[in-house]
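For reproducibility, we list the full input for the magnesium ion complex.
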Amino acid sequence: MTGPVAISEQGRGQSHALEIADVSKRFSVAGRRVQALSHIRLAVDDGEFVSIVGASGCGKSTLLRLVLGLDTDYDGDIRVDGHRVERPGLDRSIVFQEHRLLPWLNVEANVAAALRQSGLGAAERGELVRDHLHLVGLDQFAKAYPAQLSGGMAQRVAIARALVTKPRFLLLDEPLGALDALTRLRLQDELQRIVRHEGTTAVLVTHDVDEAVYLGDRIVIMHPHPGRIATILPVTDAVSRDRSDPNFIRLRDEVLSWLGVSRTGIDADAELARRSA
Amino acid sequence: MAAGLSATQTGPGDSTAGAAPVRRGNFPAAGILLLGLVVPLGLLTAWTVAALLGHLPEQILPPPWIVLDTLLDGIQDGSLLSSTMTSLERVAEGFAAGAAVGLVFGTAVGLSKTLREFVDPLFLALSQVPTLGWMPIVILIVGIDEGLKIIVIGWSAFIPVVLNTSQGVRDVPEAYVELGRVLSFSRWSKLTMIVLPSAVPSIFTGLREGLANGWQTLVAVELIASFEGLGYLMAYGRQLFQLELVLSAMIVVGLIGLVIHGLLTLAENRLQRWRPETSR
Ligand SMILES: Nc1ncnc2c1ncn2[C@@H]1O[C@H](COP(=O)(O)OP(=O)(O)OP(=O)(O)O)[C@@H](O)[C@H]1O
Ligand SMILES: [Mg+2]
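The corresponding predicted structure, in tokenized form, follows.
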């Protein structure tokens, strides 16, 4: 089922930063068994940025939950530096699909909550929180409560909360879905900058194929029923940095066709011709 | 008066959120207050008119002005005031004890499934017995002194506080519990940052019920085993057919209840400043 690329990923002997080794996960929903994940194999190296795309319900969020260690009831192994993940830890942070801010804490306190177990002093924490609110453009809203924010603003707070601990692994579950196009482009660049700068290893789930190509070093394409990896496409540096580059568009269309969006190469070439005209 | 109330509503602690759009509604608060006065004023008018027309025998329902006289007399000679203080003190002590223990116990029961399985059946059975049903046994053990009143009032406040607190603690959304795990929260952080804030509405429901129970129990226990307090005043007034005394004690109990209820609501709103104004 899984593509040959996925299998050849598995380095023998040496351990990867993050290794998802033959992971399967079943749920029982209303007495019926649902195979949420089937034989997922994926190795991610330090500092790598992996995008995951796939239809709704193909197990993307489930996979991130397993990597976090929120659920350890699955077949296979998930290892960080060769050690099996047993529980959540501050080395892995996540932006959930929904913002999950604590409604009774204001914006500042929500971000600061992530630093509670950090062992840093109050002044240092305050500064980190301020920096990260500035990063997501919400300095003015430090004292506002989540109920007073728009969906996109709340999502940006959640991003600040995930980044503030400077985690080694950053898991992103459609973090930019609720944002307007302009903010999204800006935050994509910010994410890229931070991840590069901090050497963060990132796994990004997104429905936006452009985003997947733009940010990812590799693109994991998943298919549903059961949730599995259909293929993994590498993104060369030359391709990813310019959205209007013909290679960018070609790769994007390849991803789309893997997702079952009928887009033949002829269409892509037609569009290229149209764009360059 | 209406303006004053609505001013306190918009008052505390919101100045910092200046940048965020916040809706304010002064008018509804005033409106609700006025609406709340309609029925009491209507009844009072009916009562006055009926008394003026001589439709009400004084032994059954004395006219309002006599009740008012009794009230003012009681305040002036200090008898009503001292009864009120006595009763307030009993309720305060009993409620404080019952609610404090109830909060801790309710939280523990809500958090621990094992503990819940151990104590739930017994607790449910015990809580079905009306407080007055316990009195004979408690009197046998502790006598009829202040201890009796505190224990019985405390117990009656304890029950709803435990039930509501444990329910609120159990109802914490799974998503927030998960967040606590992701952020590697300690048990203490989980409790104070996630569980308790999320349970605040249930806890306050419990406190309100507990307080109402406390007052009811107070009156009952003073009727049986006391020589002072508002409940005693009622029993005494009834025996002497001084219904104006009964009525003035009832008015005081009612007013105090209203004030305490208002204070609880104020405290709850302060703790829940984060809620959008429209849903308060
Ligand atoms: N807690 C759960 N209990 C039962 N079934 C679950 C649970 N969580 C997920 N599933 C099932 O697992 C499958 C994958 O769900 P998941 O949320 O991972 O999909 P997804 O790829 O993130 O979808 P989307 O793009 O819509 O967010 C679905 O069929 C879902 O019904
Ligand atoms: Mg999902």
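The two ends of chain A are 41 Å apart (CA to CA). The beta strands of chain A are 18-29, 32-44, 49-54, 75-80, 83-84, 92-95, 169-173, 201-205, 218-223, 228-234. Both points were considered when choosing residues for closer inspection.
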